[in-house]
Design goal:
Length: 437
């Protein structure tokens, strides 16, 4: 325990020292550099010309949907017999990554990145060799010195062996550089930096995975191949990512996205929330799942499809927007809704945003053509006394009076058992949240 604490303190000191040497403005090197010239306004509905009506069920990222799962009993036994070190116990965050790798959500990856691929992805936002765009590195951390190249280890989560890993590379990463390249910052005020510095161990291991099972979860998870089969094959599929309970404003955003000029009429939206670990003060994944289930039952809208993603958030802003897009592409989506300050976060000290409101949208638009996935910027909407929900542009033009309820006031009303206006939140969702506070 003492040695672990010393390592974490050392990493924290390294990050603070690095922060003094690295400019505070977010800088993403290589192909990850933001383009300020990309149009960012949704008010005028500016979209790429000639990109309307993309065929549904987009091709997987990198051209092939990876499936590392083994179903034959004898093949499973053979994979386990290759293991020559004691099994490794996974955290929930690590188990999410294993599942997304073995089922193909992180296609074209066939395992955790080795050191060379990790370094290349950090610096170029691309995979080594293929040069395929990839938002963030996918690595497995450990504090075990026996997990070295040439070893094969079983990966266990709770009471299940999820996979075996043939280790190709083991190294001690420069975490300050990793944070700078991934998030644009090295301060511990950033939740992603805290995760790397204080949660991840000091050794990374990479190699090829063989999938043996998926975690038993409260919420159902369809692998990419199965979700693709459940989605319409002749319509655009617009993905909506969220990590919080869905309130009325969120609903208005994804329903109105179906009317965007680059979305074919009659298309569908896939509400695809992340239910894995997020930042410390977010509502837990099980409670979030329950809110989605009651809302799905309340809406009963054939235009809205629902599925759940065992992904752990980094709060990495622009680079994480790319990660979300390529994942949804692997699930068969053709369009992706990018909200303001998507995957963004605030300083734990000052409360200031780490990323600009449109940084993620700019990054997504810049790489949309290469990803072969269209971007639907979320509308800037608000609730008004006169018209209900409308866009800010319309409200300003007509002089409408906005009605607001802050997140702080919403949480106070929730705890106090006070009535929450239906224009702000669905009653079914509020009932679930009341039981969790």
């Amino acid at each position: 325990l003492v040695s672990v604490m010393l390592v974490r303190r050392t990493v924290a000191l390294q990050l603070h020292k690095a922060a003094a040497a690295i400019p505070k403005a977010q800088v993403f090197s290589g192909s990850a550099t933001l383009s300020a010239s990309v149009p960012r306004s949704i008010g005028g509905n500016t979209f790429p010309v000639g990109m309307r009506g993309m065929a549904a069920s987009a091709k997987p990222h990198g051209g092939k949907l990876v499936n590392l799962m083994v179903t034959d009993h004898k093949e499973k036994e053979a994979a386990l017999k290759k293991c020559n070190v004691p099994e490794m116990v996974l955290s929930e965050r690590q188990a999410c990554d294993v599942e997304l790798l073995t089922t193909g959500a992180f296609s074209p990856l066939d395992g955790f990145m080795n050191e060379d691929n990790w370094s290349h992805c950090l610096n170029e936002m691309r995979l080594l060799g293929s040069n395929v765009l990839f938002g963030l590195p996918v690595v497995l951390d450990t504090d075990r010195e026996d997990l070295v190249a040439g070893k094969t280890v079983a990966l266990k989560f709770q009471d299940q062996v999820l996979a075996t890993l043939e280790i190709q590379s083991a190294w001690k990463p420069d975490k300050a550089e990793e944070c700078h390249k991934s998030y644009g910052f090295t301060t511990l005020e950033h939740p992603g930096v805290r995760m790397i510095a204080m949660e991840r161990k000091h050794i990374y291991i990479g190699g090829k995975l063989t999938g043996l099972g998926t975690p038993k979860r409260v919420y159902p998870v369809l692998p990419p191949a199965e979700l693709r089969e459940s989605l319409p094959s002749t319509k655009d599929v617009v993905a909506f990512q969220c990590r919080n309970p869905i309130h009325r404003a969120h609903y208005e955003l994804f329903i109105r996205a179906l009317d965007a000029p680059n979305v074919e009429k009659g298309s569908v939206v896939l509400v695809h929330p992340t239910c894995g670990p997020t930042q410390e003060d977010d509502i837990d994944g099980v409670t979030r799942f329950k809110t989605y289930e009651v809302l799905k039952a309340e809406l009963k809208d054939p235009r809205v499809h629902w599925a759940y993603l065992p992904y752990s958030m980094h709060m990495a802003g622009p680079r994480e927007a790319i990660q979300h897009m390529l994942i949804r592409k692997n699930y068969g989506c053709t369009h992706f809704i990018v909200g303001r300050d998507m995957a963004g976060c605030k300083s734990s000290m000052s409360g200031k945003d780490f990323y600009g409101q449109y940084d993620a949208q700019d990054m997504a638009k810049k790489h949309s053509k290469e990803l072969d996935m269209q971007v639907v910027p979320s509308l800037d909407i608000l609730y008004t006394q006169e018209m209900g929900y409308t866009t800010v542009d319309v409200a300003n033009e007509k002089g409408l009076k906005p009605v607001k309820l802050s997140g702080t006031e919403f949480r106070r009303k929730l705890r106090a058992g006070e009535e929450i206006p239906e224009w702000f939140a669905f009653k079914s969702v509020v009932e679930v949240l009341r039981k969790s506070v």
